[in-house]
Every structure is written in structure tokens, then in C-alpha cells.
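R.M. (postdoc): so does anyone remember the format we settled on? I'll just put the C-alpha cells first.
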């Protein structure tokens, strides 16, 4: 069974959005390497007028999505061991480490809030994990859900052509990936750093996020770019192992 993302939303028409294009979209529509399901929570209203929300307890502006509506919607889904995520500005920050954890599951179920949010009782009772994609408030959780889904899906087997590319990315080792360059060699008076063009540099100083560390990068004719960085990483791990002994 491919990695399956189920989105609980008031606006299923918002999907797939950017999830339907490029490699992610091809992996979904043509290769069946992952699956996308949307669940319209409007269908689970228990109000004859179709309302999903009510006024906040204790007063205040706005409206809150009702616990019984969200519970009924979730109970209609085969959870199957998938993490339950609720997109919330007050949630724990999204990190690559958490993405890797979720991507190893059979899939994810993502609840998109609206208005002032969701009744906390259903989040607690059903075990939702609150997730934030940044210190900003959105009109709803749909855009944030797409961020989480894309981050997980690109790690699914077969989605990316070269899985090694995910090992050398920003945040994988707690650091930002170094700046990238390509042809032309000179652009508006700015040159590609000479060290990236030399086949004979044995070691260089690499500056990442203001911290300088020594990194052995072997830019050989038959081993450049990301392949070289993978060799560097293997060398560093070997050196650490020998030092520990």
C-alpha cells in the first residue's frame, strides 16, 4: 500500500494544488507511488442547517469547529496506524526530523482548521499532534497541509529520482545546505567560487550559518557535486569512528 495522505477539510476543492505537478504529481497520478484522499468535513454536520462551528465558550470573537463534527469525520476514516496531524499556529514547529518520522509511517491524516480553530477536546481525545509551519497565521490549514504532505511524500520510495539527494539537504545534519551554482560561470560580474571548479582542492573551509567547520571535499573529475559531498560525509563518519576507538 503506497504512502497515503488523507486531508480533512472544509474545502476539498483546494487539493491537489501544487501536489499535482512536477515529480510529486507524476508520482501520484501516473505511478501510484503515493495517494491523496480528501474528506469534506461539511458532510458530517449534525446541524440541520449544516453548521460545523459554534461560538467560543467563555466568549470572544469568531467561531470554533465543533468536536462532534470532527470526531464523526475522523471515525469514518481507516486510520491504519497513521499519525494524526492538526495544522495550528500554536503547534510544534515542523522539522525535517519529524517529516522523516512521519514519512516512515503508512501515511498521514491531516486536519485543516478554520475560523478560531478546533474544539480542543477532540484533539486531545483522538490524539492529534499540533503542527506549525511557521510563526504566521493563515486563513485555514489547507496551505500548511500541502507543505507537510509534500515534505513527507518526496521521501517516499521512488518519488525522487536520486534518493541520495535527500541525504545532503538543508536540516538533514542540523545545518543549512551550502549555496548552489551552475552555468554560466560568470553572471552579471559574479563568478562561481573557484574552489567549486578546481579538480585538485583537497580540503577547504566551509562556512554554514556563520559557523566555520573543516570539511574534506574531494572535487575530482569523476566525483563532483553531491557525489563529492557524500564522499565527504562518509570520510567524516569514518574519522569520528577512529577517534572514538
Amino acid at each position: 500500500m503506497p504512502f497515503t495522505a488523507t486531508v480533512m477539510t472544509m474545502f476539498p476543492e483546494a487539493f491537489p494544488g501544487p501536489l499535482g505537478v512536477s515529480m510529486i504529481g507524476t508520482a501520484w497520478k501516473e505511478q501510484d507511488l503515493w495517494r491523496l484522499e480528501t474528506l469534506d468535513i461539511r458532510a458530517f454536520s449534525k446541524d440541520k442547517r449544516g453548521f460545523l462551528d459554534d461560538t467560543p465558550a467563555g466568549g470572544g470573537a469568531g467561531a470554533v469547529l465543533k468536536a462532534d463534527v470532527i470526531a464523526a469525520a475522523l471515525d469514518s476514516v481507516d486510520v491504519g496506524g497513521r499519525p494524526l496531524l492538526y495544522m495550528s499556529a500554536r503547534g510544534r514547529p515542523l522539522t525535517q526530523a519529524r517529516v522523516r518520522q512521519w514519512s516512515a509511517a503508512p501515511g498521514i491524516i491531516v486536519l485543516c482548521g478554520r475560523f478560531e480553530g478546533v474544539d480542543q477536546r477532540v484533539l486531545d481525545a483522538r490524539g492529534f499532534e499540533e503542527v506549525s509551519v511557521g510563526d504566521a497565521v493563515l486563513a485555514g490549514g489547507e496551505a500548511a497541509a500541502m507543505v507537510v504532505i509534500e515534505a513527507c511524500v518526496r521521501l517516499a520510495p521512488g518519488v525522487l529520482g536520486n534518493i541520495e539527494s535527500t541525504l545532503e539537504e538543508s536540516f538533514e545534519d542540523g545545518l543549512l545546505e551550502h549555496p548552489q551554482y551552475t552555468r554560466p560561470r560568470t553572471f552579471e560580474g559574479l563568478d562561481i567560487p573557484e574552489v567549486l571548479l578546481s579538480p585538485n582542492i583537497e580540503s577547504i573551509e566551509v562556512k554554514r550559518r556563520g559557523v566555520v567547520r573543516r570539511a574534506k571535499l574531494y572535487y575530482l573529475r569523476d566525483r563532483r557535486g553531491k557525489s563529492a559531498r557524500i564522499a565527504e560525509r562518509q570520510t567524516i563518519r569514518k574519522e569520528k569512528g577512529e577517534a572514538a576507538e
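R.M.: ...and that's the designed sequence above, right after the C-alpha cells. Also worth knowing: The first helix runs from residue 22 to 29. Residues 201-225 have pLDDT under 50 and may be disordered.
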